[in-house]
Amino acid sequence: MRISVDRDKCQGLGMCEAMAHEFFEVDDDEIMHILEDSPAEEHRTKVHAAVEACPVLALTLTG
Ligand code: SF4
């Protein structure tokens, strides 16, 4: 699976980081960084929850 982010939508709100800080990090400038964009399958439930938590639907999970 692969995580992608629509930079035009992301507002650095940090819900994704709150749900799965191993994979998402919002820096001091409110820029979100994907720490691991191809998580192992065992993390799917957690990553999916984080993607679903984004209030502006900026995250997509494929594969
Ligand atoms: S929850 Fe959505 S808007 Fe907030 S930092 Fe994550 S991707 Fe960006």
Q: Explain this structure to me?
A:
The model has no long low-confidence stretch (mean pLDDT 97). It contains two helices and four strands. 24% of the residues lie in helices and 22% in strands. The protein has one domain (2-62): Alpha-Beta Plaits, CATH 3.30.70.20. A hairpin with a 5-residue loop joins strand 2 and strand 3 (32-34). The strands form two sheets. It has a two-stranded antiparallel ribbon. It has a two-stranded antiparallel sheet with strand order 2-3. The chain has 63 residues and is an alpha+beta fold. It is globular. It has helices at 15-19, 44-53, and strands spanning 2-5, 24-26, 32-34, 59-62. The structure holds iron/sulfur cluster. Iron/sulfur cluster binds next to helix 1 and strand 2.
